[in-house]
Design goal:
218 residues; mainly beta; 4-stranded antiparallel β-sheet; 2 helices
């Protein structure tokens, strides 16, 4: 797995993570020539609000600063091609999730993609299909029984962005057998296990298969 360097990437990603400084590419959208796939996707175009230029997106990202309340979390990921074997390289992944209160709370100065909150960011897989992001562990929506989760979108060259299953955590009591059975497994089985390491950080491994169970995928 790629080595995570928090200090270096803190300064690269802090502005985009907080949503305070949309880039010149904030008006991006899927190219008219992109192959349309994935079905309806509510508010998925917010992926492009504040997104850095594709050439500047790294394989590692920080979604939460040191000051963000909550338990630290580090996700080591790998994206595979649809055959489930070949690494999917240079593909952009966008992720966002709730804060420690279970809400998508925007930063005070945030103007872009407020519905996704301040805990959001982008990675681009490396030559081995690897990526990593550091954040806090999300919590469930207040008063509900929906599992805590990560939202993730995939943007491959020549294809429209598409969403994959929410990433759930296997120790969450809201992840019931009924929900497991109803899962569409878009991108694979995305229920992952988290373990606390000697830094008191929740660490998990996430494997995604590009295009798997995505309608219209070519």
């Amino acid at each position: 797995m790629i080595k995570f360097n928090w200090v270096i990437f803190f300064f690269i990603t802090i502005l985009s993570a907080c949503g305070q400084a949309p880039s010149n590419n904030s008006k991006q959208k899927d190219n008219d020539k992109d192959i349309v796939m994935g079905g309806a996707c509510d508010r998925c175009d917010l992926m492009y609000e504040g997104m850095p230029s594709p050439g500047s997106i790294q394989a590692e990202a920080i979604l939460a600063t040191e000051k963000e309340p909550g338990e630290r979390m580090e996700i080591n990921g790998k994206l595979l091609m649809k055959d489930g074997k070949e690494p999917a390289k240079n593909i952009i992944l966008y992720m966002y999730h709730t804060d420690a209160s279970g809400r998508y709370t925007a930063a005070d100065t945030q103007t872009a993609a407020k519905p996704h909150g301040r805990l959001r960011g982008w990675v681009k897989t490396n030559e081995k299909g690897e990526f990593k992001f550091f954040s806090i562990r999300p919590t469930p929506y207040p008063g509900g029984k929906i599992p805590a989760h990560l939202h993730m979108l995939v943007k491959e060259p020549g294809k429209t962005r598409y969403y994959i299953d929410e990433v759930w955590f296997d120790d969450d009591p809201f992840v019931t057998k009924e929900l497991r059975d109803k899962s569409e497994k878009r991108g694979g089985d995305l229920i992952i296990h988290l373990t606390k390491d000697n830094r008191n950080v929740w660490v998990g491994q996430l494997v995604i298969t590009a295009g798997l169970n995505i309608p219209g995928y070519k």
